């Protein structure tokens, strides 16, 4: 089964449509104001309204208030939510939507146990741990820390680029891969060639 691809940190329609054209399965929009890839909810929803069918828009939040989350997702049923903070499973479930829970991986973590705490999630996203940084570190973690058997589909993130994504897919065999900084021209702006190369590398026959 081909690996699916999420292109995260989308901030404009041109990058969104180009990624869709090249085969992206999902697009991530960051609603964390401290991020250089933050996008205004009104602008994000305007972009989502113009996406082709079968591409999933993913709304990324970090310990956001219910009001802030509803302000983004309330008027569009297409949104999938990605929780990237310390949200409990009960909080994640409270929006009555499919969701992804991100876990930051470091030595000594029991990823199976951590994932079990979010059994209602559609998938678990594994990202590199960096103290004080909720995500988007641009750093690769040790993929061998991922157990062969996980209770939920795994989305692999953390320092992925067109140069290492094929190796990541071969080694980890994730359900999907997630990239942001690894395909950028500058923070929040995608390099279209890198996006194309990344998607091609992730989806090539293994």
Automatic annotation (TrEMBL):
<dbReference type="GO" id="GO:0004640">
    <property type="term" value="F:phosphoribosylanthranilate isomerase activity"/>
</dbReference>
<protein>
    <recommendedName>
        <fullName>N-(5'-phosphoribosyl)anthranilate isomerase</fullName>
        <ecNumber>5.3.1.24</ecNumber>
    </recommendedName>
</protein>
<dbReference type="InterPro" id="IPR011060">
    <property type="entry name" value="RibuloseP-bd_barrel"/>
</dbReference>
<keyword id="KW-0057">Aromatic amino acid biosynthesis</keyword>
<keyword id="KW-0822">Tryptophan biosynthesis</keyword>
<comment type="pathway">
    <text>Amino-acid biosynthesis; L-tryptophan biosynthesis; L-tryptophan from chorismate: step 3/5.</text>
</comment>
<dbReference type="InterPro" id="IPR013785">
    <property type="entry name" value="Aldolase_TIM"/>
</dbReference>
<comment type="similarity">
    <text>Belongs to the TrpF family.</text>
</comment>
<feature type="domain" description="N-(5'phosphoribosyl) anthranilate isomerase (PRAI)">
    <location>
        <begin position="5"/>
        <end position="199"/>
    </location>
</feature>
<keyword id="KW-0413">Isomerase</keyword>
<dbReference type="InterPro" id="IPR001240">
    <property type="entry name" value="PRAI_dom"/>
</dbReference>
<dbReference type="Pfam" id="PF00697">
    <property type="entry name" value="PRAI"/>
</dbReference>
<keyword id="KW-0028">Amino-acid biosynthesis</keyword>
<dbReference type="InterPro" id="IPR044643">
    <property type="entry name" value="TrpF_fam"/>
</dbReference>
<dbReference type="GO" id="GO:0000162">
    <property type="term" value="P:L-tryptophan biosynthetic process"/>
</dbReference>
């Amino acid at each position: 089964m081909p690996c699916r691809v999420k292109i995260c940190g989308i901030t404009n329609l041109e990058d969104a449509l180009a990624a869709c054209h090249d085969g992206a399965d999902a697009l991530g929009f960051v609603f964390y104001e401290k991020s250089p890839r933050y996008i205004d909810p009104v602008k994000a929803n305007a972009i989502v309204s113009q996406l082709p069918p079968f591409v999933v828009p993913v709304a990324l939040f970090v310990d956001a208030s219910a009001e802030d989350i509803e302000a983004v997702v309330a008027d569009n049923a297409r949104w999938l939510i990605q929780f990237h903070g310390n949200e409990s499973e009960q909080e994640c479930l409270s929006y009555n939507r499919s969701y992804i829970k991100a876990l930051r991986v470091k030595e000594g973590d029991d990823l199976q146990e951590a994932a079990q705490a979010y059994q209602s999630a559609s998938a678990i996203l594994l990202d590199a741990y960096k103290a004080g940084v909720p995500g988007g570190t641009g750093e690769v973690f040790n993929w061998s820390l991922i157990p062969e058997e996980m209770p939920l589909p795994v989305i692999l993130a953390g320092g992925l680029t067109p140069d290492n994504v094929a190796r990541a897919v071969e080694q980890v065999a994730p359900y999907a891969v997630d990239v942001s900084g690894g395909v950028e021209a500058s923070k929040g702006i995608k390099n279209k060639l890198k996006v194309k190369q990344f998607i091609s590398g992730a989806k090539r026959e293994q």
